[in-house]
Amino acid sequence: MVTKALLKGSIKGVGKFHKTSVFPCGIFQYMKGVNDKPGTPNYDLFKLALKSTAKRLYPNYANVDWSGNVGYDPNDPRTYFSTMGCRTANGWDINGFGQLKDGRGNICPVTIILPTIAMEAKQWIDSQGIERIPPKYKEIGIEQAYIDSFIDNLDKAINDAKDMLIERFEYICSQDPSSAKFMYENRTMAGYVPEEGIRSALKHGTLAIGQLGLAECLQILVDCDHTEIKGMELAKKIEQLFKDKCAEFKQKYSLNFGVYYTPAENLCYTAMTKFKEKYGEIPNVSDKLFFTNSTHVPVWKEISPFEKIDIESQLTGYSSAGCITYVELDTAVLDNIEALESIVNYAMEHDIPYFALNVPADFCADCGYTGFIEQDECPQCGNQNIQRLRRVTGYLTGDYKTAFNKGKQQEVELRYKHSKKLNLKK
């Protein structure tokens, strides 16, 4: 009853103009045998969720049966896969809570900028010349030398990120509980023991090692991204290193280190700006204003929703600290709930942990018209007080043209509508 009321409220919208609610972030937990198909007890709620998504972008879809959440208790909803923020997740707690999600959070993240490390490795190999590079690189060919040098540098960067996270974690743990009294008295952060200080609660949270720009990193090293087999092979090697190192740190320090696919709301632009200053404009690497988020397929790739899911689902299993996959849809799907259902089902079947659908949701602040507004004027009242609501990252925001930097704005404008490959009728 509560879920139904929330979804109906989302569909109705807020206020006299029925605006799309930006917060809270609605998440629907998709579970096999419970709500996934006709005949399951709560299938009606899944259909209602899809109707809400078509109109309001929310809810997103959390895959309760995701393989990365193995060991959850089907009889305890507190252990079901869920996220906080725009994608952050908590994996298995090494300090006693197991798959419990309630009362835990992401304590701090550090993000590694992959294209910078790739360029440093490539330029170092080039600068040495074939006669002066270390013997281990001479016999493997120049491209493999680039890759091996990059992996060596990435290993060091991941260790540096670990040290940064531990330093930040220790500083946070040194704070007095009275600085955030509510967090501990109300089990917002569970496990607090007054005699032990706030470390007793924070040790159950996540220390996230993030990444930015996998697609551009691959372009530097092997001249293609992970939409091609060669690029995907290297992508998996890179993600396996992240996963192995975080597992190593988790055991060594008894802290929940995890691989994080960073949203990079600001960093996508600031990192690119610094990169261009140092390396200039490189085709398919730095010829735009932004780096591609984490392990995502570049937004301009002309592929179908199912192809995007096929590619990204090969990498989501390496992340334990949070990731999201989303597809871009146009107005043709707004009244096609069956199409939305087939896309969500496909994502869940392909072990995507967290999934979102992006649909047009422009809004006229003068008359309340909601939908895709292609021109500068409202098609209903003719006024120009238009708010262009977009899911720029996992969250919704206000008008993306004022809420985000130039890099994110360009990324949104370059996004290919994956539904074009479905030949849906408007």
Attribute tags:
single chain; Anaerobic Ribonucleotide-triphosphate Reductase Large Chain; 14 helices; globular
Strand order of the largest sheet: 1-2-7-6
The radius of gyration is 23 Å
How much of the residues is beta strand, in percent?
Answer: 5-15%
Number of helices: 14
Taking the alpha carbons of the first and last residues, their distance comes to 33 Å
Q: Quickly count the domains.
A: 1
- Estimate percent helicity: 25-40%
Shape estimate: globular
In the CATH scheme, what's the topology name?
Answer: Anaerobic Ribonucleotide-triphosphate Reductase Large Chain
Classified by CATH, the class is Alpha Beta
Can you count the beta strands? 10
Structural class: alpha/beta
Mean pLDDT: 91
CATH architecture: Alpha-Beta Barrel
Q: List the uncertain runs.
A: none
**SSE order:** HEHEEHHHHHEHHEHHEHEEEEHH
The major beta sheet can be summarized as:
4 strands, mixed
Please write out the topology.
Blueprint lengths: L1 H11 L14 E4 L12 H14 L3 E4 L42 E8 H15 L6 H4 L3 H32 L7 H5 L13 H4 L3 E7 L1 H9 L6 H25 L2 E6 L5 H13 L25 H8 L12 E4 L8 H13 L4 E5 L2 E4 L5 E2 L14 E4 L10 H4 L2 H9 L12
Parallel strand pairs: 1-2, 3-4, 4-5, 6-7
Antiparallel strand pairs: 2-7, 8-9, 8-10
